[in-house]
């Protein structure tokens, strides 16, 4: 039986980066966790992975008999189809509480902030684990994506402070320029005619 960290179906950057960042943290505190994903990468997410030269989490759809950490949601509809046959070890999220439940005690990190990666940064702080440069850069991008570079109504001062700290760790001087570059990748694809 293995332990996985996985975000929601039709994964966004928060789900993918969150799985990588959480798995790294867990591995640092002695718990073997494998990052996974429930679907194809969005172009924006591919851009982030390429930028920091990090491999995508493995595509894994079935979790029967496995244990997992759920990231960026707590809804049955967004979780793996066979989630009822898996053991949920934890939920890390920033949305309203969904309908997932568990048979055993679980670790729950749910905060009303703009991004799951802001919550994961709080977990790194709690466990006093240093964030590697590449992971810090990706977490920063995920927060800029979810908060639309701090313009979303869900953005909090915790998210902004978190990005500032992550930018320092990652050695990124102009994180807003990076955010704009990221959104250009996203909109370039959105403006592509459907047949292409
Ligand atoms: Mn999110």
How is this structure best described in words?
With 196 residues, this protein is α/β, with parallel strands linked by helices. The protein has one domain: inorganic pyrophosphatase (n-terminal core) (Alpha-Beta Complex), CATH 3.90.1640. Helices cover 41% and strands 13% of the residues. The protein has six helices and six strands; from the N terminus they run βαβαββββαααα. Strands 3-2-1-4-5-6 form a six-stranded parallel β-sheet. Strand 2, helix 2 and strand 3 (58-59) form a beta-alpha-beta unit. The longest helix has 16 residues, at 13-28. The chain is globular. The relative contact order is 0.16. The mean pLDDT is 96. The chain binds manganese (II) ion (MN). Manganese (II) ion is lined by residues 14, 72, 94, 115-116, 146. Residues 14, 72, 94, 115-116, 146 line the site of manganese (II) ion.
How much helix, percentage-wise, in residues?
A: 40-55%
CATH architecture: Alpha-Beta Complex
The CATH topology turns out to be inorganic pyrophosphatase (n-terminal core)
Distance, first to last CA = 42 Å
Q: What is the 3D form?
A: globular
């Amino acid at each position: 039986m293995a332990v996985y960290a996985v975000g929601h179906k039709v994964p966004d950057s928060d789900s993918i980066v969150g799985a990588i960042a959480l798995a790294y943290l867990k591995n640092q505190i002695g718990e073997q966790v494998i990052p996974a994903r429930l679907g194809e990468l969005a172009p924006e997410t591919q851009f982030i992975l390429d930028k920091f030269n990090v491999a995508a989490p493995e595509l894994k759809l079935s979790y029967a008999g496995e244990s997992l950490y759920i990231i960026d949601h707590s809804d049955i509809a967004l979780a793996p189809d066979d989630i009822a046959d898996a053991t949920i070890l934890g939920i890390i999220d920033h949305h309203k509480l969904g309908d997932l439940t568990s048979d055993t005690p679980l670790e729950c990190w749910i905060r009303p902030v703009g991004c799951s990666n802001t919550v994961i940064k709080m977990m790194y702080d709690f466990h006093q684990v240093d964030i590697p440069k590449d992971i810090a850069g990706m977490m920063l991008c995920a927060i800029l994506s979810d908060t639309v570079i701090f313009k979303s109504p869900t953005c909090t001062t915790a998210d902004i402070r978190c990005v500032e700290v992550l930018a320092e760790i990652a050695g990124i001087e102009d994180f807003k320029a990076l955010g704009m570059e990221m959104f250009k990748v996203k909109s370039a694809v959105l403006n592509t005619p459907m047949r292409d």
